[in-house]
Every structure is written in C-alpha cells, then in structure tokens.
Amino acid sequence: MNDIESKLRTEARNLLEQGKVNAIIGFAPGSLKFTTTPLITGDKEDTDRLVINPFIANNLSVFLHEIEGPVGIVAKGCDARSIVSLIQDNQLAREDVFILGIPCPGVIDLRKVEKLVGRDRDEIDDITRDNDRVTVAVGGENKEFSITEVLRDDCLSCESPAPKEYDLLLGEDNVVVGDRELSRSHIRELESLPPAERWEFWKNEFSRCIRCYACRQVCPACFCERCFVEESEPQWISPLPRWQDNLVFQATRVIHVAGRCVDCGECERACPVNIPLRSLTGKMDEIVEELFGYKAGTDKDAPPLMTAYVPEEAEDFIR
Amino acid sequence: MYRRKRKILSGDNMKKIKKKDIGKLLSKWQADFTVFTPSRATGVARMEEWDGKDTDFLTWYRNTVIPPKNNILPNMEAMFRFQKDEAGYQLEPVTPEQKQIIFGIRPCDARALTIIDMVFKDTYEDRYYLTRRQNTVLVGLGCTNPYESCFCTSLGIHPAQSADVDLMLTDIGNELLIEEITDKGKELLGKSSGLTDASSNDEDSAKQSRETAYQKVTRKLDTTGIADKLQASFEDKDFWEKVAAKCITCGICTFLCPTCYCFDINDEISKGSGARFRNWDSCSFSLYTKMPAENPREEKWQRVRQKVCHKYEFYPRLFDTIACTGCGRCIRFCPVNWDITQTLESVPEHSAV
Amino acid sequence: MSQDAEWEPKILGFLCRWCSYAGADLAGTSRKKYPPNVRIIKIPCSGRVDPLLILKALRMGFDGVLVSGCHPGDCHYQTGNYRARRRIAITKKFLEYIGVEPQRVQASWVSASEGDKWSQVVADVTREIKEIGPNNLFADE
Amino acid sequence: MAITDISNRKKFPANGNVYLPNIAVIEKIIEETADTRTFHFNFKDEKLREQFTFESGQFGEYSVFGVGEATFCISSSPTRRDHLECCVKRVGRVTNAMHRLGVGAEIGVRGPYGNSFPLDYLKGKNLVFVAGGIGLAPLRSLIWNVLDNRNDYGNIDIIYGARTPGDLCFTYDLDAWEKDSSVKMTTTIDREHEGWSGRVGFVPQVLEQAAPSAKNAAAIVCGPPVMIRFTFPVLEKLGFTPEQMITTLEKRMKCGIGKCGRCNIGDLYVCRDGPVFSFAQIKDFISSEY
Q1: In sequence order, which residues have a C-beta less than 8 Å from that of residue D28 and are 6 or more positions away?
Q2: Min Cα separation A228/chain D (Å)
Q3: pTM for the complete prediction?
Q4: Chosen from D259, D265, D287 to mutate, greatest number of chain B CBs within 10 A
Q5: Is residue C43 part of a domain?
C-alpha cells in the first residue's frame, strides 16, 4: 500500500464518520488483472478497499448525479476537470462534492501494453512502474518500456494530472509526464489525408459500431436526461446500427460535448469495438482551444463555452 | 441443470487434419457454403466471411469479441420489404437462404445457441432465426487458452468439448482432431479433403489437451439453488441498488452476451418503399420498457436485476437452463468491471418465499 | 456524365424569422432573381440551430446547409446569433476534419432589409456547392 | 383456472411467418376523446376475413408501414364479426402516425396474440367490470361478448371512470349499457366538472360505495396502473379473493409473441402468458415491476 492510498483511506473514513459526506466514490481492486472498479459506498468499512494504482481508469464523476450530496470523490486531474465542468453547467453544486485530489501519475493503457508484448492482458504476469520505466513481466520474461509508450493517450496530453480544483490534495503536485504531440499523432495523421479518405476512414470505423452507447454512458459530459438518439418524435437518427447513423450519432455527440469534454479518454477505452473516439473528441478539444482559447474544466466560474461569446469573435466563415 | 446427452464415438471414425491444411479445407467448403471464421479484419474480433487465405486465427484466436450469435441473430436484419402501389401495400418477406459454416465456434458460444433456440422455438416459431440456424453448420474448436474471465465449467460446459456443435475440433499440436457430433457434421465431413485417420495416440493427446483446458478455467461460480435465492431476493432493493451502483447502463454486457437475444423492431422508408428490421436491444436501456406514462424498469437497479434474474432465475424456470455460458465477455468488456459472478455470489440468503 | 450538367443542388436553409426570413421575403417581393435551390425552414432564432439539424440534413441527402440569422448585435433575443456563431464555427471545423467538404455548411447574416444580400448569398452558396458536386457522403456503395 | 396456459393458444393463421403482418383497411374512425380514436378495420384478404377468429382480451400488433408497430387490444367483440376494432390513444411515434391515417388507409395487423378472458370461469357468475379511461377498450370486447350471451351470466355491474367528461371513451356504448336494464352501469369522473351532473369520484372509491358482493362473482379490472393498484385493495375489502380478480396488463411490446424480451414480469411474459392475469398470479410482483 502506498502513501497516497493509506492517506486516502484515512481521509475517506473520516469524511464518512464525521458525516461530512453521504458517500465516497473511489476505486477498489477489480476482479480481473490490472483493473480497478468504481467503489460507491456510504459504509466506512469499505474505505479499506480504496486503492490508487496505475489502473484507476474510470472517470468517477459520471456517478455524481446519481447520489445525493455531499459526496466525497477520488479525483484524478481529468476527473476534477469534469467536476469543474459539471459545476459550470449547473449539474453540480461545489459544496455538494468533496474532492479528494490524486496527483495522477498517469494511467496505463492496457491495449498499448497488449500490442507491445503481443499478449492479452490476462496472459501478462505483472506490470510495474518505476518513474519513467515500466516493466512488463510476461512468459517468464521482463520487458522494459518507457512510460510514454504505455500511458493512455489522454494522459500523455494531460496538462493537469494533479487536480487544480480540490478540497484535499493527497500528495504533491507532480511533474507532467507528457508527450502531447505523440498523443495527438493519430489526429495529425488523419489530417494529412485528403477529405474523402478521412471520411472513408470514419465510415469504416463506424461500420462496426454496435450502438451499445458505452461511449455516452461513461462520459460525464453526456448528462442529458434524454439523449437525442432516443427521441422518437421526430426520430433524429435511425435506431438501426448503420454506419451512417452511427457516425451521425457520434459526430453529434462530440459536438454536443464541445467545451465539456475534458479529454479523459474514457469513451475510447470503453468502446468494445475499438473505435478511436479520442481522435474525434481530441480534435474537438483542439478546435475549441484554437477558436476560443477555451480549455474545458479549468475554471469553475467561467460560463460554459456554448453559452458565452465575445462580440468580436472571428466570423470569417459567415457571409 | 440442462445437459445434452453426448454421443459416444468409437475411436475408429475419428479423423484429423494438419493445421496447415485448414486453408484448403475451408476453400473446399466454400464451394457449398459461406464460411465464417474468426477475424480481426474489421478492427474487432468476430466471425467474418473467410477471405480465402488467412488462417492466422489458429494462433491468435481465443474468442471473438462479438459473439457468433451475430451470425444467426444479426445485430440488424431485414424481415420484410414493403412497397406501396395503386393496389396498396405489397409485402415481400426476406428469407435468409445462405448456407453457412461457422468455423471455430467455442463450446460456450455453441451452447448459447442451443439455449436461445428454446425461446425462438417456443409457442411461435421464429422463421428468421430458425432458418439461419438450420442453414448453419457449427464447427467447434476447443479452447486451449481460456480467459481469466471465463467460468464456463461452472455452467456445465467443457471449454474443449461440445455436443452443441456439428463437428468438434481439438488442438493436438500441429494437427486438429475432428469429431463428428451430428449428422450435419458427418455430411460436412463427407465433403472434406485432407483428412487422415486419427490414431489412439492422437486421441490421447486430444484428451490431454481438453483436460488442460478444463483445468485452466479457474473462475468458479456456485450456481446451486441460485434461482430460488434470486427469487427470494427479488424485492431486496438495498441489495440490488448496491450491486447496480457502479453500472453505467450501457449495452456492452448484453450486446456481447452470446445468450442475450432481446431485440427491437424498426421500420425504414424512403419514397414509398421500405423495410422492417429487427436489431439488438438491451434491457440495460431505460427506453427498453418505457411506456408513455410509466416505466416498470426506470431505475438502473431494476434493469440490473432484470438482467441477472432473466439469466439465472426466469430462464431456468421457463426452459430448465441457466441462460449464461460463462463466456466472461460481460466481465471482460465491462467499462466498470461489473462482474456477474461477484453479484451472484453476494445474493443474500433470504428465507424462501 | 450528362446528368451532372443538369444536376442542381438541394440546400436546406434555416432562417431566423426576425431577420433572414424577412430578408428572403423581401427578396421575393422585390422580384429579385436568384437560384431556387434553397428550401427554407423558418426558425425562431439562428441560436436554435442544434448542430444535429445540420448533420440530419446532410444525412437526409441535402447537398448543403445554410444557417442565416441577424447581424451581430441585432438578435431579437440579444445573444442568440452569437451562440449560433460558436456552434456553427465548431461544427464546420469538426465536420471538415472528418471529411465533409466545408462548403456544405454555410452561414450568413442577412437582415430584414437585405433582400439584395439574400439573393447574393443564395447565388454564391448555390454556386459553391454546385462546384463540389452532390452529397454522396452517406451513400452505400 | 390457468389463465396463462398457452398450450391451446390460437396461432396467427397466416403464411407461417409470424412477423409478417396482414394488410387491413380502415373503414371507419371514431373520435373518442381529444387524443383517442377507435379504428374500425377489416382484412383486405377476403379469405382471411372469414378465417380470422379471436377471443375477448387478445391483442394485435398494428403497423403503420415506414413508422413501425404498436400493440393494441382488439376492442370489438368476437360475437360481432362485421369488422374489427382497436382503440388508439395518441402517445408516441406509431400512434401519432395512426391518427394521421384516414378511412381507406392500409395498416398491417398481426395477431391475435395473447390469452383471453376466461369465459368458462366467468360463466354463471356475477360480473363486476371496473375500468378507467382507455382501459375500457379490452373490457368492452368482453362486455359485448357477455351481453350477446346474456343468459350465461349473472348480474352485471359496470363501473367506469375518466378524468373529465371529455375523457370518457365509448360514450355510445355507455349509453347503450345505461339503457340495458340487465346492467347496472355507473359512470364517474374524477373531479367536479362544468356541465357534468353525473357521479364524481375516483373509480376505486366509487367501487367501494357501490360495494358489489363477492359471492359467486368475478371482478374484471382495467385502467391506468395507478387505478388498478388502488382497485385491488378495495376488491379485497369487499371479499374478492385474488383468484376472483382479473385484469389485463399493458407493457411495452415489440414482437407480441414472447421473443423480444421486454414485457416480462418475472418469468411471465405479458404477451405470451397474458395479457389477462388473475391478481393471484401477479400479486408478488405488483409492488415492484408492475
């Protein structure tokens, strides 16, 4: 058990004991190798199961709207940005959430590891991290990788791994282990293609979408009570999983979460059919930053991107 | 617990084939059938039409992400087409005529089809499903390397043996041992080439291979009395709320489940002609049961309860079998690691109703 | 193909009822000549245009979408067109990124008195979309 | 009485493909309330018109081609074979589309599906019909069925209510039953309403006041879920056993034949095992999923 973990358990227990929160949302050990699972509990005994490790993947803020506050929540940098964004959108009151900030060293992308070692995650014996080196033990062999090879892309481009908004920061504000360019390399690669090929690429990707809506369900920014895909009068898109409608669904979703998407990368991780969704959301984040200098989840007092304006904003595209 | 009687096969009609000859065999079958094999060509592992070359799956394939139910109950299928003319609406049913082979189906997924056969045969026969099913030959391939999430043995399924397929293959190193399971399989074997007779040594190594696979399934679930336990806990809202707390109600577990068969029916139309389709639906979605004024399963704990109870309580009561084969997909692909075995193990003991 | 020469784009216009719709009306009553390619849907404000409407129109096979509202500062609801501006800006950029020709998503400010401008906008937009050709984005081969 | 016995269930008589609807033509449309219409229709195929049989309580799947299918009970009585009827409240995509159709329009009809009211059990008994709003539609089929065989049954009590006078459906039937001396008809509306001189009060209360005897009787109940929930306790108070209380349930359905999965209450499928249930069968589920 690491320092942060033991501190977290003590603090979480105290919060529950002192009645400061109704529930704690954190991570517990998962039932599979290298996984954690969200722990949502009001029972102080459960706090002994809280963990912090390189596999705390979920953006836990997605659960906030389900629990009556105040709630204590374990938050990595991205989770905290989501919380800020939810506050901006009036989905959450600041006083209803007690942020237990985790200076996040980055989450390991198991798909990348699988690819690097050519084995499935359950065939890997161990993954250990020592600063910038990661050792993967597989088939009686130790393979060494640099951290940038195995971190999730969203972690690589994360500018605030330690939450900026918190009630308690468990640990030191840490150094950014990032490689923004690397994390956006797929976007650059797509941009270098002619438009028709880009469209063809996404058409292929969305041909295998099964409309499980995991991307939407894991997304804290997708907080609409009723999503447009579920409207029936009028029916905006067909419920049939055709690539056309799958693509319209996702494109619309990405536009709808513009300025709310904090690049936590959960949509891509959740996708069971490996659609590189972060290459859509990541691009939208860039657009928003480029056009409006806006970074989602960085200022809880700022108005949400889409409700604000500057009269002199660029409008060269308007006749 | 539901079990099919296994046909006892005498050793002398066992055949085998060299792995390197599989391509030739599949090509031969392609003359009469559309052949589906495990494939990652589309970016996700599923049963795809064989490209005529690639037999790499023999090395990488453990199981598909999209279950082979997709080849019998596709995630979207046209049921009939309609057109309007002066005489009114004309309907033209779509009949699935393609004769197909699913090569490499795992015993868990083959059992899943046996299980959902029951609902599609029940009371009213579902022509679409049953025709596809009749037109399909299942060539099973025993597991050698089950996943950590697999728990088939707890559901009475052997990872490398199956009575739910037509032909069963067992990996014996450089070769695959072939067992005839049904007449359909026998017929297909008659159309095959490159087979040689298996020796008793081959059978021994097959036995060994099966045994090893069986031992590798380490996740266990005790299903004794589970239906009664679930029934007694049906109204235990606290329990279900706790179990459901981390569920994000996406459709992964149900869509990727080989025994989840629920569907929706939708029309498409353009310029007076169109078609009626059915597509997968999921009890995880709140819209699934929504009625204008009410929704019996509005809350997510009710939907999680439905999913669990349907598989482990209702289906056994209706058809005498648990509607789960322990394939582990719902655990493996769940974004929040919601684990059905943990849920079932934590069902509280209530006094029987 | 000879058909190409005859092909005329179908463009869906979302026009704010206070300015652009009135502007288009004026263009009509003052008998301006301009291409008939824009089918108009009257909306309360350009701020009403959810990007979903733009995508839906393209999905339905429209060759282009034109959103038109009041000039900045003139919005009947004070800020609706400013919000529309942000939305259209990101939608346009994003759709371009995934491979939609930027010409298919168009926007204009046309006031109630700008009948001339409306006819010019329609002529320009129609010409630009004609140049890129029909919307086959969602076609199945 | 095994209401859910499916062994003798009538199957859809057409073409072997249960999902393929038969074309029917709308012959008449009656405006019941502001949002509810009754459609009279007949199958286009003459032979099918003659072959088609159903029983009170069964339902059909109705198509508006290009829009989809929706589930409605057959609200006419099998004793009146001139045409079939269904009563449609405008609540969603398909029902809106139905309301846009005129006389002469073609719809698709699959069915009949589901079980029916247990006539054998009801015969010789005093019957208490309790209905609210559009819930009268399925009961109406049974009421006319019973009235057309009047000598087979004992006393008949009908208690019917709606929110306002404008929400009362089948007013032409209500008038007919009012005039029928062999029927004790009570119509009520929820609250006082201008121009309404009749009974005021919620259906369960009116039922309690009317206090029909449970002796050799059966109660058949249909209405909005909230009405049904409050009606059963009243019936219990009046001495009705759970077996004597019969209702027909409404759930979201797609296939109508027990496959698509959504209409279950526990291991009972409303489409396949119902929609007619005795309270004895569903009382365990009534609090949570019904």
Answers
A1: D39, D40, D83, D103
A2: 15
A3: 0.94
A4: D259
A5: yes
Contact A227, A249 (CB under 8 A): no
Q: Do chains C and D touch (3 or more CB pairs under 8 A)?
A: no
CA of B247 vs chain A CAs: smallest distance (Å):
9
Q: Which distant-in-sequence residues (6+ apart) come within 8 Å of A29 by Cβ? A: A36, A37, A49, A51
Three-state SS letters, D124-146: CCEEEEEEEHHHHHHHHHHHHHH
- Enumerate domains of chain D plus CATH numbers: 119-250+274-282 (3.40.50.80)
Residue B28 scores a pLDDT above 90: yes
The domain total for chain C is 1
Whether D259 and chain B come into contact, CB under 8 Å, resolves to yes
Sheet harboring D36-43: ordered strands across?
Answer: D68-73, D59-64, D106-113, D22-33, D36-43, D84-89
Q: What is the DSSP string of D63-119?
A: EETTTEEEEEE--S-TT-TT-EEEEEE--SHHHHHHHH--TT-EEEEEEEES----H
> B143, B194 in Cβ contact below 8 A?
no
pLDDT tens-digit map of D153-168 = 999 999 999 999 999 9
> What range defines the domain where residue C17 resides?
2-132
Q: Can you tell me the distance from the alpha carbon of A115 to that of A123, in angstroms, rounded to the nearest whole number?
A: 12
Containing A14, the helix (H) or strand (E) segment is: helix A3-17
Taking only the tens place, the pLDDT of each residue in D52-109 is 999 999 999 999 999 999 999 999 999 998 999 999 999 999 999 999 999 999 999 9
Supply the CATH number for residue C17's domain.
3.40.50
Alpha-carbon dihedral angle through residues A192, A196, A202, A206, given to the nearest 10 degrees = -170
Interface partners of chain C (CB pairs < 8 Å, 3 or more) are A
Q: Which residues of A touch B146 (CB under 8 A)?
A: none
Among candidates A30, A63, A274 on the partner chain, residue whose Cβ is nearest the Cβ of B43: A274
Give a yes or no: residue C138 inside a domain.
Answer: no
Q: D90 at the A interface (CB within 8 A)?
A: no
C140 falls within a domain: no
Q: Which residues of A touch C (CB under 8 A)?
A: 190-191, 195-202, 228, 236-237, 244-245, 247-248, 251-252, 254-256, 258, 280, 283-284, 287-288, 291-292, 305-309, 311, 313-315, 317-319
The yes-or-no verdict on residue B3 having pLDDT over 70 is no
Nearest to B339 among A31, A266, A274 (CB): A31
Residue type, B349: E
Structural contact between residues B82 and B276, judged by C-beta atoms closer than 8 angstroms: yes
Identify the structural domains of chain A with CATH numbers, from first to last. Answer: 3-109+151-307 (no CATH), 110-150 (3.10.450)
Hey, are the CB atoms on D254 and B264 less than 8 Å from each other? Answer: yes
